[in-house]
């Protein structure tokens, strides 16, 4: 049986409140710290876990933004199509 005593998980409770820009900035800083080395194993694991959570948060922001763009485009195309039909009916 594996023991995980001594390994704490990263605190990610505040990530949901971060804006995209805040999360992206912290993610970049986290990656930089991990890549630079010199961090003990437990801290590296915490940084990795937090980085994963930050990346997921950023991806959610981007996915939601893309969905909104797609929705606006679809509504715009529907409006344009309806306008074209109205003009040809006259």
From TrEMBL:
One of its GO terms (molecular function) is exodeoxyribonuclease VII activity. It is found in: Cytoplasm. Its main location: cytoplasm. Keywords: Cytoplasm, Exonuclease, Hydrolase, Nuclease. The keyword Nuclease applies. GO terms for biological process: DNA catabolic process. Its EC number is 3.1.11.6. InterPro entries: Exonuc_VII_S, Exonuc_VII_ssu_sf. It comes from the Bacteria. It holds the Pfam family Exonuc_VII_S. It catalyses: Exonucleolytic cleavage in either 5'- to 3'- or 3'- to 5'-direction to yield nucleoside 5'-phosphates. Residues 69-90 are annotated as: Disordered. GO terms for cellular component: cytosol; exodeoxyribonuclease VII complex. Belongs to the XseB family. Bidirectionally degrades single-stranded DNA into large acid-insoluble oligonucleotides, which are then degraded further into small acid-soluble oligonucleotides. Heterooligomer composed of large and small subunits. NCBIfam families: PRK00977.1-3, xseB. This is Exodeoxyribonuclease 7 small subunit. It comes from Auritidibacter ignavus. The gene is xseB.
């Amino acid at each position: 049986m594996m023991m995980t005593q001594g390994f704490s998980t990263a605190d990610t409770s505040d990530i949901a409140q971060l804006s995209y820009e805040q999360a992206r900035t912290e993610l970049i800083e986290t990656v930089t710290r991990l890549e630079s080395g010199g961090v003990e194993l437990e801290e590296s694991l915490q940084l990795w876990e937090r980085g994963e959570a930050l990346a997921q948060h950023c991806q959610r922001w981007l996915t939601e933004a893309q969905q909104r763009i797609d929705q606006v485009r679809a509504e715009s195309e529907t409006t344009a199509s309806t306008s074209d039909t109205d003009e040809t009916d006259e």
